[in-house]
Amino acid sequence: MRSPFFKNHLELKAKMVDFHGWEMPLQYSGIIDEHKNVRESVGLFDVSHMGRFKIKGEAESQIQHLITNDISKIGDKQSIYSPMCNENGGIIDDVIVNRINSNEFVIVVNSSNIKKDLSWITKNVKSCEIQNVTDDYALLALQGPKAENVLKDAGVEQIENLKTFYLLEAKLYDIDCIISRTGYTGEDGFELFFDSKQVQVWEKLLETGTKYGIKPIGLGARDTLRLEAGLMLYGNDIDETITPLEAPLKWTVKFETEFIGKAALEQKKVERKIRGFEIIEAKRVARKDNKIYDEGKEIGIVTSGSFSPTLGKPIGYCFVPVEYSLEREIKIDIGGKFYDSKLTSTRFYKR
Amino acid sequence: MAEKKFTKEHEWIEKSDQIIIVGITEFAQDQLGDIVSIELPQVASSFKQNDVMAIIDSVKASSDIYCPVDGEIIEINEKLLEHPELINQSPYEEGWIVKIKPNNPEQIDSLLSKEQYDELVGQSKE
User: Fold this and answer.
1) pLDDT tens column, A185-195
2) Residue B62 and residue A334: Cβ atoms within 8 Å?
3) In chain A, which residues have pLDDT < 50?
4) Which of helix, strand or coil describes residue B51?
5) Where are the alpha helices (H) located in B1-126, listed in sequence order?
6) Helix, strand, coil percent content, chain A, rounded in steps of 5
7) B16: confidence class by pLDDT, cuts 50, 70, 90
8) How far apart are the CA of A138 and the nearest CA of chain B, in angstroms?
9) pLDDT class of B17 with cuts at 50, 70, 90
């Protein structure tokens, strides 16, 4: 599959990669350069591969049943992040629910889960119109401290008053656009939903952003940015065998609401947790599935590992027994050699 | 400057007197992307052809570097320990990795010529 901006990526000589069946840009100028650009000024991401479903009708209480977070906490034109669990409390997906109004919601899901989520949602949300609008809308993310300036210059009124996790229906240039103040980078930023035929928006944003040093950003830097920011990646860190309580997502589980998987989450004892780690001294990078040892005993596994461009050292997330607290020293087996490491918070970067 | 030879694993070698200089190719550094660290072998250690002698980590992948011929490491590029990005910036010059004294110099003859290597990476690009 191809995003509406496929040709733009080729023109920019992006290195393309297959991502769950989508041909997407891995990098343009280089992962570290792109990463720093987002932290220091602004970057433009094509995230049109993310799945989007529109639900119309009396859906609120039914969506509440699907997600662990509390949907009653948001009003019209607001967004909420939440895991969506199965009966065992395993994470089917982590999603953002956008409430357009009381009768219209747009759920943004991971591209790898589009089919699975659509059938799960269809099974659990009755008497509503559920539409997969992934191909109808383009989705771009504009992230970084200068993102607001770019949108202001692109003619978006009132953007400075838009709060985090709120939505704005606005004209972007002369195009109808829904803008949310959300992202996956740990920076201030926005996600832009608009008609997928309006492909000129990509080039226009790069042009408008030139004076702020905007750069196009690929999936490589998207991964290192989210890793530094403590954000989970579905398929790496979380999946159906993992509960939100084992992941650092306890804050998204609201036991005062009713949702699928609640009973399991209440009963199950949490025995392992996702922690951050950093490798001490050596610069070897740990990767997913590398094993964690303590006093010669295997105690856990790496779920995500990369190099942090901001910190200049290898970091990652791993599963370890719950009693392993922060700062505890462990060893990570990378290619048969053991590297001294220590457990940390998953939030390596705060803006 | 002597003519370079290449391996299927994307190392280049250049012969100079009794030693060879080894690095990775432009194609390899481009595929790896931003290189963030390298583990170099010990000077005076010996390797057989195709043994793993070094490991490169880029942001996105880890990659083994193979010894192109049987031989002894006589020098390593210590600059790379502080500045592994030199491999990205200058894979054929400043980014050289090790110097080796080959045990069987005839092994060098059986490595790929530039034309053969170019054909190889042309194929693997598709």
Assistant:
1) 999 999 999 99
2) yes
3) none
4) coil
5) 26-32, 79-82, 86-89, 106-109, 114-125
6) 25, 35, 40
7) confident
8) 27
9) confident
Residue B112 contacts by C-beta under 8 Å, 6 or more apart in sequence? B5, B6, B7, B8, B120
Whether B89 and chain A come into contact, CB under 8 Å, resolves to no
Predicted confidence at residue B126, as pLDDT, reads 42
Beta-carbon-side half-sphere exposure of residue A144 (alpha carbons within 13 Å): 27
Q: Identify which of A31, A309, A314 has the shortest CB distance to residue B60.
A: A31
Collect all residues of chain B within an 8 Å Cβ-Cβ radius of residue A310: none
| Test the B interface: residue of A17, A284, A290, A334 with most B CBs within 10 Å | A284
Cβ distance B34 to A283 less than 8 Å, yes or no, reads no
According to DSSP, residue A166 is labeled B
Q: What is the pLDDT of residue A282?
A: 82
How many Cβ atoms sit within 10 Å of the Cβ of residue A9? 22
Position B124 scores a pLDDT of 56
What letter would DSSP give residue A59? -
Query: What's the whole-number mean pLDDT along residues B99-112?
Result: 93
Percentage, residues of chain B above pLDDT 90 = 88
> What are the C-alpha distances in Å from A35 to residues A28, A46, A223, A310?
11, 15, 9, 8
- Does residue A290 belong to the interface with chain B, where contact is any CB pair within 8 Å? no
Question: ipTM of this predicted complex?
Answer: 0.86
Residue type, A184: Y
Domains and CATH numbers, chain A: 6-46+135-228 (3.30.1360.120), 52-132 (3.30.70.1400), 271-344 (2.40.30.110)
B9: pLDDT strictly greater than 50: yes
Looking at domain B4-103, which CATH architecture does it have? Beta Barrel (2.40)
Contact by Cβ (8 Å): B22, B99: yes
Query: Is the pLDDT reported for residue B73 higher than 60?
Result: yes
Inspect the interface and report whether the beta carbons of A285 and B36 lie closer than 8 Å: yes
Secondary structure E strands in chain A: 15-19, 22-27, 43-46, 51-56, 78-85, 91-101, 104-109, 129-132, 137-143, 167-172, 175-180, 189-195, 215-217, 272-279, 291-294, 297-308, 313-321, 329-334, 337-344
Q: Which residue of B has its CA nearest to A281?
A: B37
Q: What are phi and psi of A32, to 5 degrees?
A: -65, -45
CA distance A224 to chain B (A): 8
Among B33, B39, B62, beta carbon nearest to A31 = B33
pTM: 0.94
Distance of CA A155 to the CA centre of its chain: 27
pLDDT of A88-100, one tens digit each?
999 999 999 999 9
- Which pLDDT score is estimated for B1? 57
